Amino acid sequence: MFDATNVSYDTQIPNNVGLSGDRRVLKALERWHPGYIDWWKNLGPEGFQEHMVYLRTAVSVDPKGWARFDYVKMPEYRWGILLAPQVEGRTIPFGQHYGEPAWQEVPGEYRAMLRRLIVIQGDTEPASVEQQRHLGATAPSLYDLRNLFQVNVEEGRHLWAMVYLLHKYFGADGREEADGLLQRQSGSAEAPRMLGAFNEATPDWLSFFMFTFFTDRDGKMQLESLAQSGFDPLSRTCRFMLTEEAHHMFVGETGVGRTIQRTCEAMVQAGIDDPYEIEKVRALGVIDLPTIQKKLNLHFTLSLDLFGAEVSTNAANAFNAGIKGRYQETKIDDDHKLTDATYPVAEFRDGRIEIVDMPALSAINMRLRDDYVRDAAGGVKRWNAIIAKTGVNFEMTLPHEAFNRKIGTFAPAHVTPAGEVLSADAWNAGRDEWLPSAADGEFIASLMKPETEPGKYAGWIAPPKIGIDNKPGDFEYVKLHDA
Ligand code: BYC
């Protein structure tokens, strides 16, 4: 019998979707594969393609033991297609089809909408790999280098996950879209990636950690919403992707946390009480806390933009159709149709920030963004606990949601991180106090020197508390010398 928990390795593409019995899709994916490998080699991690990296590979979808750790050369990573097991008798948990059996095939009337969401989701995965491709050259340790590559190969697998859905359920136009996912490129003038944050540079490792904390967390929220989908194959795909996503946010949270920790320790050791003595702190070879706050401000605001407009008919239509739900939809205590419900939405009106009750159906993006902000705030609290423990007097904060926005109601507004509305000129004059300046970028870049000895860490970041897969401190996560 076909076993949907364990992964079959009898085709070139490991999978638990019975690919060997589905010649059409198998052939289509095998045709797509060489283009993917070319993309990985040309636009994936720069260098290190021939090195052995200690990576986890998904070998099952059993929550208790889905991964295996071993050394592998990245181009030989077994990118597989894995769907969480089908839930017997699952019904559509929201929208106008609430309570009807979940769809196993694409409903004709929602085909275009579904394809669009799958393509957008798919587009972000290779984009992030492209954004991070040059970071290997400046990794602060072999541990961090390995984590970067782990994140990268899994984003590659998430691309495969969306490409599978396109090939399996969307025929010729699905094939075209799958090819397009390898043609657009992060930051390209002619064919950029689809969403704003995925065309920004990730210039240094602090940006990488902020990205994996804030932007991967948008990924989590979006995947959670798609995991509610009435289209069961999408739901199952996203559910398994979320298992891997947790590690990406761990990399971000602990990466920023270790940076903060090292800065505070260096300040205490040097007897510097005032976190705003920036030059003195920088002279210690660590990143001052106000600059870390500026990086936080930037990545938080770029990630807020990924939720789309606060009031959105696209989002209302997707919810009504049963295609994209809310965060933890099945745990919400309401009618799951939102016919008469309202939701408080932030609006920029006549130069003021107001909270207005709107039909909940059109405020789906706003609600998800609120859930996201709450989730992100938890991490910031944990960073502040690190600072407090060292005795340094400083608190990281999430800036006001109207600050530095490019999408939605606040796009034309000029608002400070504290939520004060300013003129464009006054805002521009304050910009470098709130967001990383060119000089901040140069300083951080000056610290980005690779540390390649097992167990050693660059001076600006503290070592992790525990190793990956419980490995000892001096474990050689990437074998740099025997490629
Ligand atoms: N940049 O009605 P609206 C991840 C467009 S991250 C550029 O508000 P909607 C990951 C929008 O497309 C998660 N354009 O849109 C993380 C629309 O254009 P059209 C990725 C934007 O649909 C780290 C127009 O503005 N997954 O997985 O309600 C590493 C009107 O907007 C942006 C998803 O996003 C933007 N930021 O909301 C690796 C899930 N925002 O169609 C991976 C799928 C909006 O009128 N996507 N626009 O030409 C969606 O659910 C929705 O498309 C969005 C936008 C939430 C993104």
- Work out the number of β strands: 5
Radius of gyration: 23 Å
Largest sheet: 3 strands, antiparallel
Name the average pLDDT. 96
How much of the polypeptide forms β-strand, as a percent range? 5-15%
Q: Helix and strand string, N-terminal first? A: HEEHHHHHHHHEEHHHE
pLDDT under 50 segments (min length 5)? none
> N-to-C terminal Cα separation, in Å?
41 Å
- Shape field: globular
Number of helices: 12
Q: Kindly report the spatial arrangement of strands forming the biggest sheet.
A: 2-1-5
As a percent range, the share of helical residues equals 40-55%
Structural class: mainly alpha
What ligand species are in this complex? Answer: benzoyl coenzyme A
